[in-house]
Amino acid sequence: MEREEFVLVRETVRSLAPRYGVTSPDEVKPATRAAAQQALDDMGLRDLRRTSPPAATAQECALLAEEHGRHPLTTSLLGTVLLAPELLRLLGDDTSRGTPTVALTSELRFPGPESADLVAWDCEGADGALCVATDGTVTRVELGPTAPSTDLLRAIREVPGDTPVETVGRLTAPDRLRWQAYALVVVTAELVGAAGSFVEQAVEYARVRRQYGQAIGSFQAVQHLLADATVLVEAGTSATRYAAWCLDNEPPERALTAARVAKAEVNSSALEAVYAGMQVFGGIAQTWEHIAHLYLRKVRLGATLLATTGDLLPALAAPEVTR
Amino acid sequence: MTDTPLDFGDPADLDRLRHEFRAWLAQHPLPERESGEPVQVFLHRWHRLLHSGGWVGLDVPERYGGRGLTALHQVAISDELGACRAPGVPRIGYLAHALLEFGSEEQRLRFLPRMLAGDEVWCQGFSEPGAGSDLAGMSTFAKRHDGHYTVRGQKLWTSYAQYSGLCLLLARTDRSAPAHKSISAFVLPLDRPGVTVRPLRAANGDDEFCELFLDDVRVEESERVGAEGVGWALAMTTVSYERNALDTGHISKYGLLVERLRRHAAERGGSLPDGLLSRIGRCVVDYEVLVAHARRRTAERLAGQVAGPESSVDKLLMTRTEQRLYDTALEVFPAELAQEGGELFGDYLYSRAASVYGGTSQIQRNIIAKRILHLPSNG
């Protein structure tokens, strides 16, 4: 991929932001959500990972997710555009109809061996959800009522316990690793984008907000806070892009390790970076109207999504061969 | 910040290089460090051996003694050395870049091949007792005469000067101009009359750091690197490469210790004290993030970007990795604390210097705030 293409990928998602990015949580309404989703769907990005070989690299998909995270968008880019189509591609399924998203446990993890309540995650515009069992079996489940979520931008719905289960196919063991790595990378990329954007907004604010007769960004205490947040964002960006690159170029085991590393790094660093940004914004960022808490909610919930730091660190401490 | 995709060119080309290098390594076993042999002397033997196989300065143009390949090729060799637990590549990349960018053609031809070969060992005379973080405040002065200078002053933290033949020296050439425009760079042979080198003993017992006393040392005009007054720009380029994740052999050293911690975790299973397993996991994450970050910098270098202020990000990341790693290692291996002179405790002590040498962590944050984030100055 050339640098120009890389920039173009970014631009597609960025073009949604001026019209559909919310400026306060009160703007998040069913009608505006549907309109934003329609605009995203009209871009036809769902085919990017639907064909085999895919039209877009994992690196490009991660970049789309990163850019999506930068803006307060309610659209389901991750669930319906990047994740569910990838599952169908890995299954070699080119007949399925509809717009599925992905199903996770109600704790937002990959479904494990024990049966658990499911939710349809990131389901704006979705008409079903794909659930991957630990043996690789992929089933399609139906959507129930809206489920509450602290991430006000992300739509989640319950999956009724008595939902009819339709088997779509079965992933091979390597493909299940690929799927998990890809899901971790895409989710992590969105968190990195959110943290990076919020830190940039805090830097802008530090340039214009004046106290003691000067811009607060001229104070070294504020500068160092923002410099440290920048280092965290850069590290998370490197880890996530490298994990995406591994998906395109390395065996699935290696890609999954890189994806776990990225998620473990970003779980804490995105949150810390957003904390730093909020500190720079000061009182204004504590209000309902300010978008700071939309970013905070996304990264706070994001740190538990798919894998928490508590899950990942002990697993990564095991030597490479025994993991 | 940067938006360069990770793209490393033709992997077959790199695979060939790796195979070629492994074959060479198989025929040239690692030299043993003799008892009592100073580390730097041992590393110099290793440097010359590597060079004899053509494995030093891969990204330096051929006419200057390199192989005209890319930074990626050099990184691949570093990776291979790390994987077989050999010492890293000689740390001369940042000095080579200073000469490549600022030296005259004559100087590049004269110095670079011998630097790469290890025929001439270099050190760096930047810091002074009164000019640490405020490097521009240096007072060593080079007084101009007809065709030469006389240099008077003192340098500090000049690593391994006692083993070096040449020093890349910064000195003021104008007392009236602003600091950043009055510094010039010179190549100083350390056997010149008036030069005194005195090693300092560091907290870990090593004698890496030296003092350099310069008492009216004659330096020829032809030994000045670049024009008068470009010394500051040269210094900033040099430290950018020095701080950069690619130009250090540290990463593979961290990797070895991380693997040792992991093996210990596997052996001890569930009997590690509470929380220690997660701390080891955190070290793994730090290390792998640093590897990923170095890959990203490699891709940027291949795409033609030169080292700049973002190397301050790299330095802070390396510092974080190194300090957390050695601190954790002492928690995992507490017996190392019960003996003086152990290698791990020595490395731990050295890790505390990581946030000071090459520009303190506070200076790195200043650079990020001013030159990357463009935050306003005080006042």
TrEMBL record, chain B:
Q: Supply the Pfam families for this chain.
A: Acyl-CoA_dh_1 (PF00441), Acyl-CoA_dh_M (PF02770), Acyl-CoA_dh_N (PF02771)
* Cofactors named for this entry: FAD
Please state every residue range assigned to the domain named Acyl-CoA dehydrogenase/oxidase N-terminal: 14-119
Organism (species): Streptomyces hokutonensis
Its family remark reads: Belongs to the acyl-CoA dehydrogenase family.
User: What Gene3D superfamilies does this protein's entry cite?
Assistant: Acyl-CoA dehydrogenase/oxidase, N-terminal domain, Butyryl-CoA Dehydrogenase, subunit A, domain 2, Butyryl-CoA Dehydrogenase, subunit A, domain 3
**Record keywords, A-Z:** FAD, Flavoprotein, Oxidoreductase
Specify the protein name. Acyl-CoA dehydrogenase family protein
UniProt keyword annotation of Disulfide bond present: no
Q: What highest taxon heads this organism's lineage?
A: Bacteria
All copies of the Acyl-CoA dehydrogenase/oxidase C-terminal domain together span: 230-373
Instruction: Look up keyword Oxidoreductase and say if it applies.
Output: yes
Acyl-CoA oxidase/dehydrogenase middle domain residues are 123-217
